[in-house]
Design a protein that fits this description.
With 320 residues, this protein is an alpha/beta fold. The chain has 14 helices and seven strands. It folds into two domains: 228 residues, Alpha-Beta Barrel (TIM Barrel), CATH 3.20.20.70; 64 residues, Dihydrouridine synthase, C-terminal recognition domain (Bacteriocin As-48, Chain A), CATH 1.20.225. It is 46% helix and 11% strand. It has a seven-stranded parallel beta sheet with strand order 1-2-3-4-5-6-7, with helices on one face. Helix 8 links the parallel strand 6 and strand 7. The protein is globular, with a radius of gyration of 20 Å.
Length: 320
């Protein structure tokens, strides 16, 4: 989720709990060997044992179409200590697909196999190699074939976003097709797509047959979603309970922490926009986020944003 689930949001969301592992934003590979500085910029967790500050392991994701370049960059990246290499064959962005990457490759299973095989050979055996795919490009007729190509190439785990590129992010997600893929390969399959609630998680598991789930936009909207799913699994929370497991009063300090990280990492002109971006998602879950977004939408000066956060208890007042 380029431009959204970066290291800042990974840090803040993993503080909440319930997450086993994260995946970085995709690192775009063309025909050059990327520098260590580039890898660290996108995944600074590499400086800290490949984990977020709360200790959650992060797998580095590469996106590209040339097996040699992907293998060379994976080898260099593996030296920096990520908790695995993930390969992106699911991105639906037009600019990515136009340059031969992401979901476009789902039209060519033999190329999927070649890329995964090259990466698997290039990285040490102890470094896991996984892949993420959609059901297909224009349709899902080759979904199982693509999954088998990835598994046969050496992928040890497969995350399946239950839509094609043509579906983009429009509901529904076709979880039952993930089950077809799961039955067609011998490696673990993780279901992804359109999981916004505990009930969605239950229905996804039932339809896909997958025990494990990947949460994307659903957890950006509801930072406590992973915790809520775990609580329902443990029988300590009624899955029909609709209130967020993380109340708004606990979201506010997360927003404050998010703001401090954004200010430390981004240029001044980008700072207010990042906070509004997250609030724009959260207002789907929290009425208070709707009100906050409305008030902050007109603010562009970081000093005024800070004043708002201080006034609403997300930050301690300066000088305290």
């Amino acid at each position: 989720m380029e431009g959204l689930l970066d290291c800042v949001l990974r840090d803040v969301l993993t503080r909440v709990g319930g997450v086993d592992r994260c995946v970085s934003e995709f690192i775009r590979v063309t025909h050059t060997l990327l520098t260590e500085r580039t890898f660290l910029r996108i995944m600074p967790e590499l400086l800290h044992g490949g984990r977020t500050p709360s200790g959650v392991p992060v797998r580095a994701q590469l996106l590209g179409s040339d097996p040699i370049s992907m293998a060379e960059n994976a080898a260099r990246l593996a030296e920096l200590g990520p908790h695995g290499i993930d390969l992106n064959f699911g991105c639906p962005a037009k600019v990515v697909n136009r340059h031969g990457g992401g979901a476009m490759l789902l039209q060519y299973p033999e190329e999927l196999h070649a890329i995964v095989s090259a990466v698997r050979r290039a990285v040490p055996a102890h470094v896991p190699v996984s892949a993420k795919m959609r059901l297909g490009f224009n349709d899902d007729t080759r979904a199982v074939e693509c999954a088998q190509a990835l598994a046969d190439g050496g992928a040890e785990e497969l995350v399946v976003h239950a839509r094609t590129k043509a579906h983009a992010y429009r509901p529904p997600a076709y979880w039952e097709r993930v089950n077809d893929i799961r039955l067609g390969v011998s490696i673990p399959v993780v279901a992804n797509g359109e999981i916004w609630s505990v009930e969605d998680a239950r229905r996804c598991r039932q339809a896909s047959g997958c025990e494990h789930l990947m949460l994307g936009r659903g957890m950006v909207v509801d930072p406590g979603l992973a915790l809520a799913i775990r609580a329902a699994d443990a029988g300590t929370r009624d899955p029909r309970h609709s209130e967020p497991v993380v109340p708004w009063d606990d979201v506010l300090p997360l927003m404050g922490a998010f703001w401090e990280l954004v200010v430390a990492r981004l240029e001044r002109r980008q700072q207010a926009g990042r906070l509004k971006q997250w609030l724009n998602f959260m207002r789907q879950r929290y009425p208070q986020a709707e009100a906050a977004y409305t008030e902050l939408r007109v603010l562009h000066d970081p000093a005024l944003v800070r004043q708002w956060l201080e006034a609403h208890g997300a930050l301690g007042a300066q000088g305290d």
